[in-house]
Specification:
With about 650 residues, the protein is α+β, with helices and mostly antiparallel strands. Helices cover about 30% and strands about 20% of the residues. It has twelve helices and 21 strands. The strands form four sheets. Strands 1-10-9-3-7-6 form a six-stranded mixed sheet, with no helix packed on it. The protein has a six-stranded antiparallel sheet with strand order 2-12-11-8-4-5. A five-stranded parallel sheet has the order 16-17-18-15-19, with helices on both faces. A hairpin with an 8-residue loop joins strand 13 (about 400-410) and strand 14. Helix 9 runs parallel beside helix 10 (about 555-570). It is globular. The two termini are about 50 Å apart.
């Protein structure tokens, strides 16, 4: 079974003879470097199409759109501890100038029999022009593959210099000179929009879904710029369309430096200051809370990373001390050897206990901060059990972000960090109804998982409806076989849906045709600067399409339209929420891979499928559950529809 890796995740390699395939959708410079146990690479340890003589690593001469590496780990030099697969954009060919405007590169590690062992889709790239895609490394005598995806804006020379090469500039220039003529003869790379960059990427078999990194999950803090003007609150009846282009950007995303954070009250001597809700920089209380949540996420990530590093150091030190004892035949037996081994283990336990004490101190401080922050969160950031939902009123402006669920780490599962996504949505959502490897998923049968997945999708759609002003967010639903009628009932009964859930081939075709036409019209109007020429009855608000039980009941045309909506829709305010088991769609082959990669994967049960790109933790995502017996979901949806009627929307 293929391991779909995320940044920082590793996977064992059962075979020593491998093939690494790269798919980028545009010309790339592909090469490999080897490094020693200190992570230092040498000039003679570089393999590229012009120098393929590195023992154990072979790069074919054709390295344009689909580079392939043949690796024999048994043949690499004994002092090599790591093999790095590098990708860079060719210079002087007129192609793209950064990975952020290209299709997301995809890497697959294949066994000698052709089966795929691991795959990695490198998403979230911006200004990078060179990157380390994956690395193969030795660990306790065995080889593993790690998904890296670390990029460098300074190009291949900066990357090689970071690996310790003394002649990095010269080596990078030689590689570029070798590859540039081939890249120039290849089909010119097309400049992609943000949606194209996801939609055009494709891999040979099963690429990793785009839920991999928290850069697409947890919203980043507000950044700064040059205009100090405070945000203006938009009025609900302000016209958006006539006389100018439609702007789907958040109206309160600031480019100006926010006010400094409120000064914290000093704590008692020897104790940290008492936590305060909103103790972060920002223009408003909402923004301060938003940035405070981000700070809590970073603090927890760093604290756990420091603890894990300390434990790994303690165990590594113990292993070295034990190896030293066992290397001397005189100390292998008898009281001397036993005493040395006991001392090594005691030192390891002492260092581990010290690291745990530091972690517990940091966790206690974060738990205290969470206790004061959680009750102060506005509805868009709050869980369903927060009292603010019972006092809910339909807002007159869009919040900065929406809470999708909670995140936690195994060292402290009770400490939950809100998982926030920026609004408007920049990518669609995929609620995975398939059986994953998590314990919670394995404890349920397929029917239960499918029902929970639809329930999660309805709850997320309700949150989106609730945080938008009246009439500025519309939800459609496709349920080909009517199997989700019970779960969709809150949306249907409250009148929150734009129409009854589409069923049957004709209903599916009608909804997809309508939304596809809307994307076409708005895209042409925005690109042509003719927003005032749109039909007067066109709904220019944000649109969400819930698609249940995909791919059952969808023909090839419908699949093509869904891919189009996933690629082009977010830029003009049309978003997908797929409720699907990816395994069910395997009959379509790789044609649907770009669809999965364009969506942020969430699960109806706890699952550790999200990773951050900083310290490479695997975070457990836990969905927000409506309290059992609570009618809060229906109450909120009823107020949303009442507000729409009162505003004639």
């Amino acid at each position: 079974m293929t391991a779909e890796l995320v940044r920082g995740q590793n996977h064992p390699l059962p075979d020593s003879r491998l093939e690494i395939r790269v798919s980028a959708g545009h010309p790339v410079v592909a090469c490999a470097t080897c490094s020693d146990e200190r992570g230092v690479a040498r000039e003679e340890w570089v393999a590229h199409p012009g120098a393929t003589g590195l023992p154990g690593v072979d790069v074919p001469e054709r390295a344009e759109r689909s580079p392939r590496f043949a690796v024999d780990l048994d043949a690499v030099p004994a002092e090599v501890h790591q093999v790095n697969v590098l990708l860079a954009l060719p210079v002087g060919t007129g192609g793209p100038d950064r990975f952020g405007v290209t299709a997301a590169p995809f890497v697959a590690v294949m066994a000698k029999d052709g089966s795929e062992l691991a795959s990695f889709t490198i998403t979230g790239l911006e200004t990078e022009t060179a990157l380390v895609a994956v690395e193969l490394y030795r660990r306790q005598g065995a080889w593993k593959v790690r998904a890296v995806g670390q990029g460098y804006a300074g190009g291949l020379a900066q990357l090689l210099a970071d690996q310790g090469m003394a002649q990095a500039d010269r080596t990078a220039a030689a590689i570029q000179e070798t590859v540039a003529p081939r890249a120039h003869r290849a089909e010119p790379a097309r400049l992609h929009t943000a949606a194209d960059a996801v939609g055009a990427a494709s891999g040979p078999d099963q690429p990793s879904p785009a839920d991999a990194t928290l850069t697409g999950g947890l919203a980043a803090p507000q950044t700064t710029g040059a205009d100090p003007t405070p945000p203006q609150t938009p009025t609900p009846d302000a016209p958006q369309m006539p006389g100018g282009p439609i702007n789907y950007a958040h109206p309160r995303r600031q480019s100006a430096p926010p006010p400094p954070a409120p000064a914290a009250q000093p704590g008692e001597p020897g104790r940290p200051p008492a936590p305060v809700a909103g103790d972060a920089s920002g223009w408003s209380m909402e923004e301060r809370l938003y940035n405070q949540v981000w700070g809590m996420f970073e603090d927890l990530a760093r604290a756990v990373a420091a603890y894990r590093s300390a434990v790994e150091f303690a165990e590594s030190r113990m292993d070295k001390e034990l190896d030293s004892v066992l290397s001397d035949p005189r100390s292998r037996i008898g009281s001397t050897g036993d005493a040395a081994r006991a001392a090594a283990r005691a030192k390891c336990e002492q260092l581990t206990d010290q690291a745990r004490q530091v972690l517990d101190r940091d966790l206690a401080q974060l738990a205290a901060e969470s206790e004061v922050v959680e009750p102060a969160l506005p509805p868009a950031f709050a869980r369903w059990d927060n009292p603010c939902w019972h006092a809910y009123r339909v807002p007159m402006e869009i919040p900065m972000a929406l809470r999708l669920g909670d995140l936690h780490l195994p060292e402290s599962p009770e400490l939950r960090i809100p998982c926030l996504v920026r609004l408007p949505l920049e990518r669609g959502l995929w609620v995975d109804s398939g059986r994953s490897s998590s314990d919670a998923a394995m404890a349920l049968d397929e029917a239960q998982l499918r029902r929970l997945a639809v329930d999660s999708a309805v709850a997320l759609a309700a949150r989106l409806l609730a945080v938008y002003p009246p009439g500025e967010f519309t939800v459609h639903a496709i349920d080909p076989a009517g199997s989700a009628a019970a779960s969709l009932a809150p949306l249907v009964d409250s009148g929150a849906l734009a129409g009854p859930p589409a069923a049957g081939a004709q209903g599916v075709s009608a909804v997809l045709a309508k939304l596809t036409e809307r994307v076409d019209l708005v895209t042409m109007a925005v690109r042509g600067g003719a927003a005032d020429s749109l039909p007067p009855d066109l709904d220019t608000g944000e649109q969400l399409l819930i698609v249940n039980d995909f791919p059952h009941g969808f023909d090839d045309r419908a699949v093509t339209q869904l891919r189009y909506l996933a690629d082009e829709g977010p830029a003009v305010g049309v978003h997908l929420m797929m409720v699907a088991d990816r395994e069910d769609a395997t009959a379509y082959g790789p044609v649907l891979d770009p669809l999965w990669r364009s969506l942020l994967r969430v699960t109806p049960v706890p699952d550790d499928h999200l990773a951050d790109p900083w310290v490479r933790h695997a975070w457990t995502y836990e969905p927000l559950a409506v309290p059992e017996g609570s009618d809060v979901l229906r109450q909120v949806l009823t107020r949303v529809t009442e507000a729409r009627r009162s505003w004639n929307r």
